[in-house]
Amino acid sequence: MCDMRRFDTTDVFLAVLFICTLIVYTKIDDCVLSRELVSICPTKSQFGKRLKANSLDEIPIDLEYKENSPSDGESRIPMIIHQFWNKNPKHMKTMININSSWKYEVWTSKKISALVHEKFKDIAPFYDGYITQQFREEAIRYMILFEFGGVYADVGWKILLPLDKILKKFACFLTQTWHEESILSFHIPRLTSDSFMGCRKGHPFMRVLIENLPSFYYMPAWAPASTGLYYVTFHYKHYIADNGNVSSEDDNGVHLFPPEYFFRSIANNTLSEMKKKCESQGLSSVQKWACSSIDSKGFNRQATNSPIAIHT
């Protein structure tokens, strides 16, 4: 049974009401929206179609883009790199070597638990109730950036250039996946990435992400929707709409970097799925654009500037 008591926003209420209605009348996959059971519902394809409003727009932006960052001035984002402890830290050394003057914070389970239960007591019951570790790892990064500021990076990221310049221009930044990948793999035109982001301490966008975690707790048991990249994309879209006059360079602004600044190629684990999709019939105009773009540009891309970091 779908418990609607915790929903605060109209958007979330309508999205979940629609899914709950589907459960009652069509019994798709015995969908479960509570943490007591862990059935996955719906598939990411189905969910992407139902929450089409998550997309930032319907036509991908022009990728011919060059970022001009200041070479001097104070950092607007604290020079702290946050990562979760990993026994096989493949690229952790690049974080330290290329940003030698930065503080490097490795978060263990003990430190994370203390932060959640001491600083975010209202969120703690939901955090503890998540059905898998992936939910918790995605939710905690917003709390870390809000409480301390800095840059969060998954351990799969390899830093290629110093991060100093981008921290001098923006008080908060997000990255985004390649448009072709988000269109063909996730069924919406654009997706922000939650694996590499940075913000000043106390940024209101991080507050939005934290405060809405309970409202999305009863979303389908699929982390991208409840805590991950779909979740961030949804709230980024509404944050920008609600703060339309705020520049991305403002203290409360959020800058969205083009894909080529952080992604040199389309993720290997999605290649076969995307190729299969392009060979199928009945593609939408946006999907046809994505397939045409892949045909002309390939899966490996030449960045406008040298990438700041790449995910391997």
From TrEMBL:
Keyword Transmembrane helix belongs to the record: no
UniProtKB keywords: Transferase
GO biological process, one term: glycosphingolipid biosynthetic process
Pfam families cross-referenced by the UniProt entry: Gly_transf_sug
Membrane spanning stretches: none
GO molecular function annotations of the record: transferase activity
Full protein name: Uncharacterized protein
Gene Ontology CC: membrane
InterPro entries for this protein: Glycosyltransferase_domain (IPR051706), GlycoTrfase_DXD_sugar-bd_CS (IPR007577), Nucleotide-diphossugar_trans (IPR029044)
